[in-house]
Design a protein that fits this description.
Helix content is 49%, strand content 15%. It has 462 residues and is α/β, with parallel strands linked by helices.
């Protein structure tokens, strides 16, 4: 008969036995049961979702006992007998299999708890491992930063060492320069002392001169003095009561005929020095060295006397002459105007023999002349036209005395005229800036200077 009290369908005994065998195989360690653990152990611990699903499955199926199983039969006649037979078989099977299933259920529950604890421990350890990895990454970043800072500091240290080396080199160089300066000072100490002594003597002489009255005139023979300067009353011609000596000094010094500026240790060459008027003002204006040449003997004696108080002045008794011929003396002719004691010359080679010196020999000896003053009564033309060393002279002031008829013995190739225009053309060809001014017939003044030099004269108010 039909038993509708049960909700399950009729199942063959063979199916039940197969399930029982399956459970027994699970208990005895069959591979199908072990696959659960293997799936757990081989799963990716980092995949928490899959792990939770596996654990949930094991937990839900840990109790393998089926207490809800009901036996019924749909056969109308033998159903009750079959049911009873099946219940007897089921009771026998349950009596044998029940304890096993109970132990298996306990084992499964214990296994689920152990796996859950392992999972918890793994999760905890995984968190700790993640924290360790985070700290390692952080420390690695810090280590990289430390290495970067060390590299940067090493670069800075290298730069500091380079600057220290550079500064040490500069200090050593400055120390050497200081030692050199001290050495130079020590070597020149005596020279400085002598130079200071010379300047003091000169200033004292100037002071003494200006303290004396211009009316303090000392009479004595043919000479009279004003201050330190000596002048002649009469010329070699006894009929002449006085000379132009004092007047020339007045023009050259007091009226500054040559427009002399501050000479500031300049080197001066004075050709036609007369009695020393130009050398006197040059010394007063600060010249450090003066070379004087005078061809008239009486003028030369007065030149020595008038300038003996000064240091740094060299006086020479000689006529400065042309540089294209070698002669030891020339003939000096006094001026026919006996008032003018500075008017004699050697141009026409008559008169008294006097020593002669080439102009270029003088320039070679001096080497560099800041200012040349030349008043040679016509000799300025052959002196300047034949010079090969004129480049040593920075500035020239002087008088020119034009000569209309040049004697054959004085002619110079390439210079047919001894005129102011010819002289200016020549000097300009030599690189000078030139100005000149006529004073009288065949007489005038000229001023020449090299460009870009400090001018020492303002002769013609240029």
């Amino acid at each position: 008969m039909n038993d509708n009290r049960n909700n399950i369908t009729d199942t063959e005994v063979s199916d039940i036995m197969n399930k029982i065998k399956c459970n027994l195989n699970k208990r005895n360690g069959d591979l199908s049961g072990q696959s659960i653990l293997n799936s757990v152990s081989s799963s990716n611990l980092n995949n928490s979702i899959a792990l939770n699903q596996d654990l949930s499955f094991i937990h839900e199926n840990s109790n393998i006992q089926n207490d809800t199983y009901l036996i019924h039969s749909h056969r109308p006649i033998f159903g009750h007998i079959l049911k009873k037979g099946r219940e007897l078989v089921n009771a026998e099977v349950k009596r044998y299999v029940g304890p096993i299933l109970f132990k298996q259920s306990l084992f499964n529950g214990t296994l689920v708890r152990i796996i859950s604890e392992i999972k918890t421990t793994l999760t905890f350890n995984q968190d700790r491992l993640s924290e360790v990895e985070r700290l390692l990454t952080l420390n690695q970043d810090r280590l990289s930063e430390v290495e970067r800072l060390l590299t940067l500091n090493q670069d800075r240290l290298s730069e500091v060492e380079r600057l220290l080396t550079l500064n040490q080199d500069k200090i050593n160089k400055m120390d050497q320069q200081l030692k050199n300066q001290i050495s130079v000072y020590a070597d020149n100490r005596e020279h400085f002392k002598a130079e200071i002594s010379r300047l003091i003597d000169e200033r004292c002489a100037k002071y003494e001169f200006f303290l004396k009255s211009t009316n303090d005139i000392t009479q004595g023979g043919n000479l009279y003095s004003k201050g330190i300067m000596h002048f002649r009353k009469k010329s070699w011609d006894a009929s002449i009561d006085s000379t132009w000596d004092e007047a020339i000094f007045e023009w050259v010094v007091n009226k500054n005929e040559y427009g002399i500026l501050n000479l500031d240790n300049a080197i001066i060459l004075d050709v036609g020095a007369h009695i020393g008027s130009f050398a006197y003002i040059a010394k007063i204006k600060g010249s450090s060295r003066i070379y004087c040449y005078e061809a008239e003997l009486e003028n030369f004696e007065l030149l020595k006397e008038n300038l003996k108080i000064f240091n740094g002045i060299e006086v020479n008794y000689a006529a400065v002459w042309r540089s294209d011929m070698t002669i030891s003396e020339v003939l000096f002719q006094k001026n026919i105007n006996q008032f003018n004691t500075g008017g004699g010359g050697v141009m026409f080679q008559t008169g008294t023999p006097v020593p002669a010196v080439k102009f270029d020999d003088i320039l070679n000896r001096i080497d560099c002349v800041d200012l040349l003053k030349i008043d040679a009564e016509g000799s300025e033309f052959p002196i300047l036209f034949t010079s090969k060393q004129l480049f040593r002279v920075k500035e020239i002031v002087g008088e020119y005395h034009e000569i209309e008829s040049i004697p054959d013995s004085l002619k110079i190739l390439g210079h047919p005229e001894f005129t102011a225009n010819a002289l200016c053309t020549y000097l300009r060809e030599m690189g000078y800036i030139v100005v000149f001014q006529h004073i009288a017939e065949n007489l005038g003044k000229f001023h020449a200077w090299k460009p870009n030099v400090k001018r020492l004269s303002n002769l013609l108010n240029e």
